[in-house]
Amino acid sequence: MKSKEFTKQFLFQIQPGWKIIDVGAGNGHFSRLFVERGAIVTAIEPSSKIAEEESIQVIRTNVEDFIRTDVGKYDAVFIRNVIQFLSKDWVYRALFPWIDTHLVVNGLIGVETFFKEPSPPFENSIKSLYGLKELADEFPGWQILLKDEYEHYDSDMRGKKRLFYATDLIMRKVAPKEV
Length: 179
Description:
The protein is an alpha/beta fold. It is 27% helix and 35% strand. It has helices at residues 2-13, 29-36, 63-69, 88-102, 132-137; strands at residues 19-23, 40-44, 56-59, 74-80, 103-119, 143-155, 161-172. Strand 1, helix 2 (29-36) and strand 2 form a beta-alpha-beta unit. The protein is globular.
């Protein structure tokens, strides 16, 4: 499944000691994979059931509140199946600029989201859909390491089978060119 390729490619880039934000960490599955690669993880999840571990700091809040207060620098930001439930205006106006400011040069962003509503649709309505070009255009000059749009049939987090329309993007922040 292509979603696994997204995760595999993101994991492959992680270096020991990296500070990573896992936005919408859920049960902590991906946070633990990052720790296995030697990363120090900040897991953002309001309803998190993640146990605090030595290399995982769990912040039980939403991403909107987190970015208003956090001033750290990070080597990677992982956002999987989150931004489609947020206002697109807020994502473009607040979240992506925050990431640009708080991600170190040569840092990574990995975004997995939807370009079309799943079938059958979720009970909680999706607020925003993102095409691949649209997402990449928000980070001009960044190096694209993986980009894909695809359909896949799988179970959601509650076990219900759905047809998903996924957008996957992994990019590396590059140093601004000097004038």
